[in-house]
Amino acid sequence: MGRPTTFTQAKADAICERLSNGLSLRAICRHKAMPSKTTVFKWLAQNSEFADQYARAREAQADLLVDEMIELADTPKVGKKTKRTADGKLEETTGDMIEHRRLQIETRKWVAARMRPKKYGDRIDVDQKTTVEAGDSVMALMKAIDGRTRSK
């Protein structure tokens, strides 16, 4: 039996549930009972209700990534690091894998900012001060209409 290609709400629900639980679309579509990514993208283009449901699942996925960042930051992970010393010997140390956790957090932060830019994206403070000087033509126009638009 081949992969499903006909849209069903049950498949859409399963895809969106797995997305909101943190799985990538690639991982979901690897499963033999799921449609290919190409089919999912076609369904998204053809079905606005599924597109809305999918967008909400992606928003939930971004929120989940933020929760994971907090957990990663708060939970030390002990591992082994190996490095070569100046004399060519391998030296193994055990300790917190902080570099690895930092990479995991930064990756999730980047992805969450792309999934929900209004909520997790960088804030850009726009402060624009503009000075406008009325030229002769604007002043002449204002004099010409002065009094015509006011109630008497």
Automatic annotation (TrEMBL):
Pfam family, one: Sf6_terminase
Gene3D superfamilies registered for this protein in UniProt: Homeodomain-like
Domain of life: Bacteria
Classification via InterPro entries: Sf6_terminase
Listed name of the protein: Terminase small subunit protein
